[in-house]
Amino acid sequence: MREKVLRHVRAADEAQTVAEIAGATDVPSTTVRFHLHALAEDGLVEASPAPSDGPGRPSMLYRARPAMDPSGPRDFALLAHLLVDVLESVPDATERARRSGHVWGAERARSSTDALADLVGLLDEAGFAPERRAEGIRLNRCPFLEVARRRPGVTCAVHRGMIEGVLGAHDADLELLDLESFLAGDHCLATIRPLPPRR
């Protein structure tokens, strides 16, 4: 129904009332009003009062605004696959991916908590289902699983950078020693250790 209302409003030569749109589309006025409100919120139509022809509240006139319709499905997985494919052809792809992840981690680090707790919290929010272990952090899920299986070098470099970014933002005496992928086929392991003493 939304598409039908939007198509009619876009095709109309001039602004129309709810009643006019309902009559032309054979959609009940209450349904038209509902969809027009949603379309206005999405910036696809605009409403203005009709010229007053006497006392009472004036009718609203609706016209289309030029804008892409934001409703409908998204396919971010396809975009991720395409971007990773392109990136992998770049000579320093893994380093670029790691730096991108580092920026993500550094920007999201929360100084109000300790580094490991913050890291686990952020990884959990990102969908990794992390668990703290003596040797570091076990990642039980990968929110980019299909891409990571296909292009682990680039994808896992992003994850490495994310972890390093959070730890670095806390200026913690901790470092990511290793990030092992798909251990036993069901998890990844981020091995974190104290930084060696500075000389």
Structural description of this entry:
- The structure is a single chain.
- By secondary structure, the chain is an alpha+beta fold.
- The chain contains eight helices and six strands, in the order H-H-H-E-E-H-H-H-E-E-H-H-E-E.
- It has two domains: 2-64, Arc Repressor Mutant, subunit A (Orthogonal Bundle), CATH 1.10.10.10; 76-194, Muramoyl-pentapeptide Carboxypeptidase, domain 2.
- A four-stranded antiparallel beta sheet has the order 3-4-6-5, covered by helices on one side. Strands 1-2 form a two-stranded antiparallel sheet.
- The mean pLDDT is 89.
Write the layout of secondary structure elements.
Elements: H1 2-11, H2 18-25, H3 29-41, E1 45-49, E2 60-64, H4 76-88, H5 93-108, H6 115-125, E3 130-133, E4 136-139, H7 145-150, H8 152-169, E5 174-183, E6 187-194
Helix pairs in contact: 1-2, 2-3, 5-8, 6-8
